[in-house]
Amino acid sequence: MFKVICVKDYERVSDIAFETMKPFLKDGSVLGLATGSSPIGLYKRMIEDHKTNGTSYKNIYTFNLDEYVGLPLDHSESYWTFMHKQLFDHIDIDDSHIHIPSGLGDLEANAKAYDEAMDKMVVDIQVLGIGSDGHIGFNEPNTPFDETTHVTELTEQTRKDNARFFDPLGEEVPHQAITMGPANIMRAKNVLLVANGANKAQAIHDMIKGEVSEACPASILQRHPSVTVVVDEAAASMLEETDYEKR
Ligand code: GLP
Q: What φ, ψ does residue 221 adopt, rounded to 5°?
């Protein structure tokens, strides 16, 4: 079940995302976190709230969606580095409560260990962005819906979308990633998906209005009982006005 909220711009997307996240920022919560530019504004607000209101993350646990294969942790574009820079370094979370799949070493074993860790907890709210091809996490089109954590080949579209981060370093976008599968994502009690910009309009349309199909990984969310989608006007441009609440 989707609750779709359409707002003017990215700043408002981030405000509403934070409002949705706020009730979960309490002892014992398990947060599913995402990388990419879409959730950065949300993370900024979480940091601000920690600094000004003293919201503590000492007893909060996190599970990230995915990581590139083969990047050292301290590589500037690893998702490990991203999460520390954008959030973890600025809040009081315990390092041992942070879970990010490892794209180094024995990948099969890493995937299995990640599923085992996830099986011990239930994610209260899973933050998601969306790829322009409808991917969530790094679940590319045609990933089986029942897949759990696994290694995946990135599509040319995704590698093109993410080249903006690697080009300045003179490096290639990695070809593979390790990602939670659709089945892990669907186990979260609540989902919060944020998207902005016209290049997300088709994916947002297909997720909400298209048929549920592995060709659009995000469409599986039509089967989830509690999904809040926060989009700006550009990302909502292929929806009808009756599809969303305007704020
Ligand atoms: C990457 C991540 C996804 C993210 C997507 C969109 O592929 N693995 O989790 O949703 O990018 O990124 P952005 O928010 O930068 O558009």
A: -65, -15
DSSP secondary structure letters along 189-246: SEEEEEE-SGGGHHHHHHHHHS---TTSGGGGGGG-S-EEEEEETTTTTTS-GGGSEE
Where residue 33 sits, what CATH number does that domain have?
A: 3.40.50.1360
Per the structure, the count of domains in the chain is 1
Task: Provide the residue-wise pLDDT of the chain in tens; the chain has 247 residues.
Answer: 999 999 999 999 999 999 999 999 999 999 999 999 999 999 999 999 999 999 999 999 999 999 999 999 999 999 999 999 999 999 999 999 999 999 999 999 999 999 999 999 999 999 999 999 999 999 999 999 999 999 999 999 999 999 999 999 999 999 999 999 999 999 999 999 999 999 999 999 999 999 999 999 999 999 999 999 999 999 999 999 999 999 9
The residue type at 135: H
Q: What are phi and psi of 229, to 5 degrees?
A: -110, 125
Cβ of residue 39 lying under 6 Å from some atom of ligand 1: no
Pocket of ligand 1, candidates 130, 151, 166: which has the most ligand atoms within 8 Å of its Cβ, to mutate?
A: 130
Q: Is 134 in the pocket of ligand 1 (CB under 6 A)?
A: no
State the Cα–Cα distance between residues 68 and 156, nearest whole angstrom.
Answer: 15
Inter-residue contact 39 to 140 (CB < 8 Å) = no
Ligand 1 pocket, 38 CB below 6 A?
A: yes
Between the CA of 137 and the centroid of ligand 1 the distance, in Å, is 7
